[in-house]
Q: What sequence folds into this?
């Protein structure tokens, strides 16, 4: 019988606290404020920041993504600076497939925290956590080929580019087809 893994809802790196689940609601105001402040910049790459992103949508996003029963195939970590407790970004694990096990990783950093290495630190930690604690065999990222900053980040985390998927998705604002770079990190497979 396959049991669902129990993911840690709090992880810590040297500079960050990563939180998932209802505990994040204690930081709802700071998250909302940073989301609203960053929406204009992030909407180029992240679709939910499009479509008149406002306070109501920010709060709805926080409420839905912290409800662990909302979708069992998605786990979203909210990232906070350890010293200041400010919200700096998010990592989402989606399309979790326990048969392999594998998932897709997605990420973004709020404007005030960009360029400080927070996301590289968080991705490296979460990747190690999934491989060492939950024996993930594959973690992949799909990135718009024009998003050079995101590509640089995932490459710093030692993900390997497996190829380019042509006309594979719509842009964040849903206005045109895009090509995506497929990156992955894999572990050796041992059959028993």
A:
């Amino acid at each position: 019988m396959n049991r669902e893994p129990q993911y840690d809802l709090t992880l810590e790196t040297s500079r960050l606290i990563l939180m998932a689940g209802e505990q994040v609601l204690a930081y709802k105001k700071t998250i909302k404020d940073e989301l609203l402040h960053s929406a204009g910049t992030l909407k180029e790459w992240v679709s939910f920041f499009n479509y008149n992103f406002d306070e109501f949508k920010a709060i709805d996003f926080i409420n839905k993504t912290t409800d662990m029963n909302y979708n069992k195939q998605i786990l979203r970590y909210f990232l906070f600076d350890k010293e200041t407790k400010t919200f700096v970004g998010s990592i989402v694990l989606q399309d979790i497939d326990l048969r392999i096990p594998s998932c897709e990783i997605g990420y973004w950093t709020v404007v005030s925290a960009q360029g400080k290495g927070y996301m590289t630190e968080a991705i490296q930690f979460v990747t190690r956590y999934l491989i060492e604690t939950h024996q993930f065999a594959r973690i992949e990222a799909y990135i718009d080929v024009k998003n050079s900053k995101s590509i640089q980040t995932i490459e710093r985390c030692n993900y390997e580019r497996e190829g380019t998927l042509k006309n594979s998705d719509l842009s964040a604002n849903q206005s045109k087809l895009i090509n995506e770079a497929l990156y992955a990190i894999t572990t050796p497979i041992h059959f028993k």
The helical segments are 28-42, 55-66, 118-134, 148-156. The chain has one domain: 10-186. The CA atoms of residues 64 and 70 lie 7 Å apart.
